[in-house]
């Protein structure tokens, strides 16, 4: 058997496979750390400002999203994601990065056609399916 | 000029590269070939407001630098052949807008460097031009945002993904003897191996490269030993192994003389995954490093095979496979007897 006889099958031996175990460990550690940080923030808001649990969670999410947008703006979120993989999608940091990166990218085409028009290019699908999933779950989980 | 075999043009009455220039971005300047490039930019914007303007500047500088080295004004050039990766070949068209030279725009994805050089050589040999300028460019950020994702989007790229080279290369081809002689060119066929992953273009392009190299050997009755170096454009760590294996299956052992521009342009620790890609990859390595080493006598005869994945975002989203092409040009240090 050679490459020429069945390229699509034989070529797989030449394609490096992802490091599944290492990626899973990195995603678990980074994602877990981020979630623990958000939980600590939420508890802190609840304690210091006597915020309701829902309000405290919202504030924690806003801070995490803001952090993601800041790291995106200084050009490091892509490097962080290459390392952390799925860990970098935790909470709404992945969505914040998707919207911010597209908005920054298309600043060169102006505020309307560029920033506003293209902002949901990368994150639009997760917004749509997130809404649908939330609606469906809301029906079965009162 | 004559055609030998099915796909190879042999330029036996003298077609020369009179001058060449290579302009690169920061990561390429920092790579192992950094000292071979004519102009190195410190940032990706190259002093411009947008990345697209930066790419245009790269090509314009390569053209100007090449003409300056040759001591030729733009008015004395009969034809400009160029192409790039942007939609509608935007960079090339806008650079040509600034030049008083009749213009042929070519698209061969990352095979454009040798596509334009081969076409320029053929037009010179055919007597249709005395001097022709061949140029190509690519820019990491313009390619990323057109073909992949926003540059700052957090996605984990696979090990097979390549990194688009920021740079531009230009070569002035003519009848008057120069330091390098264009000896032959093999025009490739489109080969589609059926792969659909745009983040593994090395595997998609390797069959096209192997096809062109084999055809070249068959047309000329040549063998790998006739060349000091056979270099592919941007097959990267994945595709370069595959093309050697494909050629070995056909009975050609290129191991001792083979390399890939995508592996030469960056150091392994530069975080470029499988290696460099893009139109500029083969262009700056050839017009910067390889030609200088030919002039120095390190190599006497090269076969540069620029590889292009003819990728369309729309076609890939419609689950179509990725066609690929490769064009090869034989370049010799001048003073060589025909082999």
Automatic annotation (TrEMBL), chain A:
Pfam families listed in its UniProt record: SpoVAC_SpoVAEB
Residues spanning the membrane: 20-41, 47-71, 83-104, 124-141
Keywords carried by this UniProt record: Membrane, Transmembrane, Transmembrane helix
Keyword Transmembrane helix: yes
Keyword Transmembrane set for record: yes
Source organism superkingdom: Bacteria
Cited InterPro entries: SpoVA
Entry protein name: SpoVA/SpoVAEb family sporulation membrane protein
Upper classification of the organism: Bacteria, Bacillati, Bacillota, Bacilli, Bacillales
UniProtKB/TrEMBL annotation, chain B:
UniProt name for this protein: Stage V sporulation protein AD
Gene: spoVAD
Annotated source species: Geobacillus jurassicus
Lineage: Bacteria, Bacillati, Bacillota, Bacilli, Bacillales
Top-level taxon of the source organism: Bacteria
UniProt-listed NCBIfam families: PRK08304.1, PRK12404.1, spore_V_AD
